[in-house]
Amino acid sequence: MSGFDQERPTKQDSKWFAAYTASHHEKQVARQLSDRLVHSYLPLYKAQRRWKKRPALTIDIPLFPNYVFVRIPRSQRNAVLGTPGVYSIVGSRSNPWELPGWEIEALRAGLPKRKAQPHPYLAIGDRARIKSGVMAGLEGVIVRQKNNLHLVLSLDQIMQSIAIEVAPEELDAIPGVALKLSGNSSWSVRGSFSAVSSIAS
Predict the structure, then answer these.
(1) What does the longest C-alpha to C-alpha distance in the chain come to?
(2) Quick one: which of 103, 107, 143, 178 is 20 to 30 A from 155 by CA?
(3) What is the C-alpha separation between 171 and 137, in angstroms, rounded?
(4) How far apart, in whole angstroms, are the C-alpha atoms of residue 198 and residue 149?
């Protein structure tokens, strides 16, 4: 797991927003934002791609296709919107939607240490929460993929989800929800970062 993560001086009123980009232009946009001294974050994951008569290649692909996250004061919106390949900042024309800052920071700190991949968007389900480490507090849905458990984190503002590998001992039940990591169970959560969980052994 890797990503473009550009640190730039920011004002205290800077907030995280999602810039909507042209397809397959996310990396180019992230580089251009860096050149414009805009603090941006583009999380990537590694995947193999195969073409006819060519060996498989491992390449870095955006975890959230068509989106680059930017941390800016609202006065810097034009610097983002004027970047080639950027269509808009997610939200209304007069009021871009602020993203939950602590959760973006948790992703920045935690994703480089975990295996992650895109996942179909999930918004409603029973809740589970990571209870320790740099990603502590993030809530999500548990799904079983092959022999591993994954926590699906959903960003409602852009209606996309990613799945990260987790161990059962990393998870806490949300109060009022029984958390079972064996047998048949399912639960879900609603929130900025959320997940629906379905564990079947």
Answers:
(1) 55
(2) 178
(3) 10
(4) 10
Query: Per residue in 135-147, pLDDT tens?
Result: 999 999 888 877 7
CB atoms within 10 A of CB 144: 14
Rounded Cα distance between 37 and 138, Å, is: 29
Alpha-carbon gap, residue 201 to 71, rounded angstroms: 41
Confirm whether pTM is higher than 0.70. yes
CATH fit for domain 2-99, picks 3.30.70.940, 3.55.40.20, 3.30.450.180, 3.30.565.10:
3.30.70.940
